[in-house]
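User: Hi! I'm working on a homework problem where we have to compare a predicted structure to a textbook description. Could you give me the structure for the chain below?
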Amino acid sequence: MPLEYRHAPSDLSDRVAYGLTKMLRIFADTFFRKRYGHRAVVLETVAAVPGMVGGMLNHLKSLRRFQDDRGWIHTLLSEAENERMHLMTFIAVAKPNWFERILIILAQGVFFNAFFLLYLFAPRTAHRLVGYFEEEAVVSYTQYLAQIDAGHLPNPPAPELAIDYWKLPSDATLRDVVIAVRQDEAGHRDMNHAFAEELCRRPKDGAQLADPGKESDLAPAA
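Assistant: Happy to help. Predicted structure tokens:
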């Protein structure tokens, strides 16, 4: 999907997810303003939660129903790991202070429990929420990139961790890292919107979900 892709809310579930996302965006913009590195540290620790929760609950569902998960568990856990690597990278860049570390602990504790309950009772809304979160992440990293390009923010060498993880050139800079992370977020956006669409189409008899590796099965609706 194009980098600037946005999913238009189509029903109550979508509107709830969209409204929550916009509310949290206002909070993030107010608290962090243009401190994009520090914003990334706090938000990436939250962003790593949905994939872990979704993977865990789909794992348990697969065990209960004696059904293959069609690749959903691996995809969601891979998303969680990717978001964790984003966090590790921006910790090296922004070096959070003690207040931000406390905020991370509180945010993760609240969000994990809230998202667990949401996914348990409304998985489609949960995936749509993550899709909207990732749309905002793409916007934030685009703004971060613009600030670097304009010379308003420094562009230091990329952390060694990021160079190894994304296989970047040895002389890569923070700008290269932001581009790589933004591309990851766009991929998570498309996949979670696709999961939400699949859950909307799923028969109520509990039929197996489509394979996330097949784009024809899980193409997000325009």
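For your comparison, note the following. Residues 166 and 209 are 30 Å apart (CA to CA). The chain has a mean pLDDT of 85. Good luck with the assignment!
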